Amino acid sequence: MLASLTREILQSLRVALQALGAYALFFVRLLGEVPRTLLRFGLVVEQVHNAGALSLVIIMLSGLFVGMVLGLQGFDLLERFGSEESLGSAAALGLLKELGPVVTALLFAGRAGTALASELGLMRATDQLAAMEMMAVDPVRRVVVPRFLGGVLSMPLLAAIFSLIGIFGAQLVGVQLMGVDSGQFWSQMRSAVEFGDVMEGVVKSCVFGVSCSLIAVYEGYHAVPTAEGVGRATTRTVVISSVVVLLLDYLLTAAML
Amino acid sequence: MRQTRAIELGTGLFVLLGFSALFFLVTQITNREFGFGDGGYRVVASFEQVGGLKPGAPVSMSGVTIGHVQEIEYDFGEYKARVTMRIDNQFDRIPDDSDAGIYTAGLLGGQYIGIGPGGSETFLAEGDQMQFTQSAIVLENLISKFLFSKAAESPDGQPAEESKP
Fold this sequence. Notes:
The complex is a heterodimer. Chain A is mostly helical. In chain A, 88% of the residues lie in helices and 0% in strands. Chain A starts with a helix and ends with a helix. By secondary structure, chain B is α/β, with parallel strands linked by helices. Chain B contains 2 helices and 8 strands, in the order αββββββββα. Chain B has an 8-stranded mixed β-sheet, with no helix packed on it. The longest helix of chain B has 28 residues, at 2-29. Chain A binds chain B through residues 42, 45-46, 48-49, 52-54, 56, 83, 85-86, 92, 96, 154, 156-158, 160-161, 163-164, 167, 188-195, 197-198, 202, and chain B through 4, 7-8, 10-11, 13-15, 17-19, 21-22, 24-26, 28-32, 56-58, 106-110.
């Protein structure tokens, strides 16, 4: 009984380690192909369109509402301390440093990550990847790396748009609805937010962009070539991406604070 | 062809939007000044205590921001904090006997340097040192001074010397 349990634990540990190693190797392989892919920039542009431009609406809408909620909650909280003028700095710092990168990454995993994984999984299931190999076209170089790069390039831009719209959402609620003084809102924000805070958000979203895109293309590329396998790859993409994003967020915050 | 054109247009729009958002965040939301060339001249002042003053804090006269704190370092020559301020060029008529003090904006606000004009006919210029400074007030010191002066009061209600109610 105990022996079989130990064996099972060791087995799952081995599988987890193996997955980690496979991820690392796949990542290195992708990085190796990046310079050559950059020469065919049209492919990357197409994927920036898929991952970034098509996610724009959901990002902007979510950013607006997250900002508005932040405005409401922040106002309610700060009013208790009689310092509702700090709403601007609180909302801006919260959005730039935390909510912008993290929520964008989670939405990205749901919107673009699943699209990437299911597309690659279907290519695998319908033998398109095998067909490419037959024609001596490296599917990693032709299909996977452009998608990976598209995601990596899109994420910081999406996060910046999210934060900006969020700040305007907070301003909408705080200043227009709740009556915080507009001048104080902006001036407190400008005196509190520093260049490093913006950069912290950018660094975070770059890291999230790499990890989310990597997870999506890995899961899609290695999907079991059945309908069920593609579905599972899509689910795994969202689950792994979300957990990894939140975990990395803690680590990055601890490292940069 | 039409298809790729639409894709490129959409992508271009997205990238433009993203970078302008980033640019806006960096320039408008932060207190960073992008000085093209060197806008302004530097003035130095030494303080006993700078409190929570940080680089980038505003320097103001009568509440009007005329520049920013550029750097704060410790001067072992006179054992004081040495604050370098960058004052915008348009404010070039500050008398050289003006005094600089460190104040707090509101109860929870950040600290800033307030300059009170003196009466001299000559004005501050690049690299000048301000003579009269007033240190930041550290709340803990103030409270402890108050408490000690209270405690120093003799039991019969007569205040000890140097303590004022």
